[in-house]
Each structure stands twice: as structure tokens, then as C-alpha cells.
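Archive record
______________

***
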Amino acid sequence: MDLRQLSDAIESVSSRYAASLGVERDDIWHMLKLQEEVGELTQAFLTRTGRARTRGRTPAEIEADFRAELADVLCQVLLLARHHGVDVEAEVRRKWLSRLPDQG
């Protein structure tokens, strides 16, 4: 699956979820939802690194939480980009991959 296909699939899931809750996914929602997910990733990271309570979760559950929150942040970034018409793949090529030695 390429990035565009992934973005399409994530959009489908997100739009169905928002419709079921009656949520309008506007500019503000996209930005705040990303912020919420970054906060959850931060909490998972703190727990994973012993800087926050485990709340009785096992090491395996803590690791799974961290991985899941990484996925949530990625999905929200893709949704935000899509909402604003940003081609993330093109921007990664321009901003990051253009700095590879063989791209010079």
C-alpha cells in the first residue's frame, strides 16, 4: 500500500467514525485532534520510559500502547495534510529526500 492508498483508507475510517458521532471535521478539529494524539503519544512514551505510572499495565501492554499512539499520530498527520490538500509524499521528497547524497 502506498501513502495515497493509506491516506484514502484512513480518510474512510475517520469520516465514518466522525459521522457516527456527529463530529464536523473542520480545520480546527483536524489540528486539535492531532494535538490530542501527540499528547497521548507523549503519555505512552513517558510510561514506556519509566517516567509515568504504569496503571497496572504489563510491559507488553505499555509497548503496544506506544506503538498504537505512533500510528494514531501518523494517521492524524495524514488526515490533516489531506484536509489541506497537501501531498505529503511530494513534500517529504522535497524537504527530506532531496538531501540524500545521490539527489544532489
Q: What stands out?
A: The mean pLDDT is 97. Residues 59-83 form the longest helix (25 residues). The chain has four helices and no strands.
